[in-house]
Specification:
The protein is mainly alpha-helical. The protein contains two helices and no strands. The longest helix is centred in the last third of the chain and has 27 residues.
Length: 58
């Protein structure tokens, strides 16, 4: 009887083993993402210019 429980204790958990970790593959940047990044960069530069002009006047 103990041998049966020992055998089940070894066999049953083996089905629950985790899969090996697979590294995520980075996706290439699309043209749309590049356009949005460009627009965000221009917006940042314009806002920095506006802050510079506002502070320079004081």
């Amino acid at each position: 009887m103990i041998r049966i429980f020992a055998l089940l204790a070894v066999i049953l958990p083996s089905g629950a083993l985790a899969e090996a970790f697979q590294r995520p593959i980075p996706q290439p940047q699309t043209a749309t993402a590049e356009v949005w990044f460009f627009m965000a960069s221009v917006g940042l530069l314009l806002s920095l210019l506006a802050v510079h002009m506002l502070v320079r006047r004081r």
